[in-house]
Every structure is written in C-alpha cells, then in structure tokens.
Design a protein that fits this description.
Blueprint lengths: L2 H20 L5 H10 L8 H11 L10 E6 L9 E5 L4 E6 L27 E11 L2 E8 L8 H4 L2 E3 L6 H7 L13 H11 L4 E5 L3 H6 L8
Parallel strand pairs: 1-7
Antiparallel strand pairs: 1-2, 2-3, 4-5, 4-7, 5-6
Length: 224
Amino acid sequence: MRITDKIILTFSLIVFSVSTVTGGPNDETDMRKLWTDCSLTGVVSFEVFNTAMLGYLRIENLKKKNLLTVIDYSKPSTQKRFFVIDLKNKKLLYNCLVAHGKNSGENFPKDFSNKKQSLKSCLGFFLTAGTYSGKNGYSLQLDGLEKNINDNTRDREIVIHGAEYVSTNYIKNYGRLGRSWGCPALPPEISKEVIDIISGGSCLFIYADDSYYNENSVFKIKKT
C-alpha cells in the first residue's frame, strides 16, 4: 500500500469513528446538510463551517465531541462572530460578540501571532481545558494544537474570559469593540455560562483568511 493510500485510509477511519460517535458528517453532502440542520445558513458561512469540521474530525482527545466552537475573525468586531454549535442535537447554542487582540487591528483583525507580548490574536484549532478565577475573572484555559501557529497559547495566557468592553454600548460609543491582549473576550453577562459548557475538552476553531495560517496549518485540508 502506498503512503498516500495509507494517509487517505487513516483519515477515512478517523472520519468514520467520529461520525459514529457524534452522528457527524462523513462527506461534503452530509457536511452541508449538518450545516443547514444546525440553522447556520446566513450565520456561519459554509466554507468556515466546513474548514472547522475537517479539522475537528482529525483531532484526538476530544472529550466533548458534541460541541464545536467557532470564532470567525473574518468578520468585524461589531458583528456577532462567536458560535457554539451542538453537533449531536444540531443546534446553535450561542451566537455573540467576541473581542480580538489590540495589535491585530481596529474593527477588523488582520494580523495574528503566536509570539509572547505581541498582543495579537492567534488562529487555528484548540482544545478547551480547565477553568480558574484570575485577573480577568472567571476564565477558560486553551491548548493550541498547531505548532508555530498557536502552541504558545498557555505561555501567552490566552484564555476565554468576560470583559466589559464587549458590548453593544461600547460599539455605539466607539464604533468597534474594545480589544484584549490577545484573548477572545466575551460579553460578561454570558461568559461564565458559555465557559462552563465548552470547558473540559471541546474543540475551538478560530478562523481568518490568513495566508500564513492557510499555508502552515496541519489541520486544514489544502486546496489543490
């Protein structure tokens, strides 16, 4: 058996096993149907959802396989771009505002980094970990799964937390959300509820149409 065939077979087995456990898709037709059934049409683009699912299906150690969280940083901060999807029950659980790092851009984030003290957001696939109460209140630790893209997440203290500057009032006053030091900050009134649901081993995917990420991600299926 050729190496290429082995890779294809391995990926097919991963897709089959996850599909069996979660009821998830195993081809593009099923993927598009799941996207529609979850009422994501006009909310999350199929391209973003499809990319998230292709990576999700390749991630090991998922404990909460029914959940997929997506942040779409191709959208401005004035739009709701944080999504928690229940894949098993085919339901969009949360859709809310989320901040990006102050050095990633103003209303539109354009620059991303894996470096310490960059104050920029990072992209890619993550596993959610444990919770704690720190300087930003109740927070969720993240483990970046992509080398040289987000694997410094713990050292950078990139976590999900609530922040007062993530609100419609802030947008009215400043024309954009406030910005973090790289953390995907949520509206404080729902942050604890969201954190408790997605913590402990679910998949988070942070998307942007970024050339460095598109070329170097090991989870994305490269376009030919």
